[in-house]
Amino acid sequence: MNKKINDFIQSGISEFNKKNFIKAEKIFIEILREYPEGVMIYTYLIPILIYQNKYNEAANYSQKLFNLNKKSEIGLVYLGIINFKLSNFEKSLNNLNDALKINSKSVDALINIGATLHKLERNSEALASVQKAIGFNNKNSIAYHTLGSIYESEAKFNDAIESFKKAILINPNDYESIHGLSLIQLSKKNYSAGWANYEARWLRGNMKFRYPDIKKLVSLKGIENKKILIWHEQGFGDTIQFSRYVSLLIKLKAIVVFEVQQQLLSFLKDQIDCDVIEKAESKDFDFQSPLLSVPKLFSIDGNDIPSSRPYFKCNRERYLYWKSLLFLSKEKINIGIAISGNPNHYREEKRRIHLESFLPLMKLCKIFIIQKELNQNDLIFSEQNEE
Known about the structure:
The protein is of the alpha/beta class.
């Protein structure tokens, strides 16, 4: 391969590292036109396509890569990764097991088999596959991250923490592992470390920091009379739960503008004594912060999480309207529950509570499901247990 091609490759890698995926893609496709049998070029191009969710193109190039050299498992590993991304987990397993037939010591195949088995809730097999990969290479941060994710789902939190820390030790820029570690730390009430590590969510690549041109709020010192924009970043539940910290900022005499989802505008305007808006049109703010970065500023520990007392205010007309529609029980406590969130959330299986779990409570309470949609199993259970 001549110097010109090598220069092009370095240019493509540079654009990829800067997350200029479209430019990087064009560069590597251009190189392939001149060097169509350059196996290494495919190994750069395919991940770029996967990052852009261009799975059909990535699959075509992966198949070409495999056809170029059927003694190498790399093309099949990429096909396994693509099918994993498409939630075709059984196809993914087939691709990855075929890769192992070519190279039984393929660390990439073993790690991805572990991740796929984990998705299929076959965690004992998943652990065995990842541990085998680590036996071949104990310096692979992705292996330890996958191990940590499996341990976390098994509620083996100390093992998960150890695995995530090993991943971070190998690769300090492993933001997925830092984020995974933060969630466990927060669950275990290690708020100082948990909130600090939770900031890694902005470096994982799947969330966009909304107002980079406004100075970020990093301290509570001197915020009196400062105009601060706080903006929602995740789901409705997070916005409602963490709105309590907006109230704390107001108590410190900051001039707060709270940007929330359109569906929550009316509700939160009744709850919080500040300007609640859907979209900040102006950049005339002293500071800004995403909502879930605010708790870190207050150094909250497990004993002083602010309560929402008095509870949220309820519009009287809406209260009477729903009271007239619902058949409230006079013998039991009436409880409204939400058991699942966004079905497309990457952690939804971990976040969801099966409706069947509330069966013992139904002897004492009348349950109202306060969400629009249920998955099929919960819907069937609901229909079978209607009062």
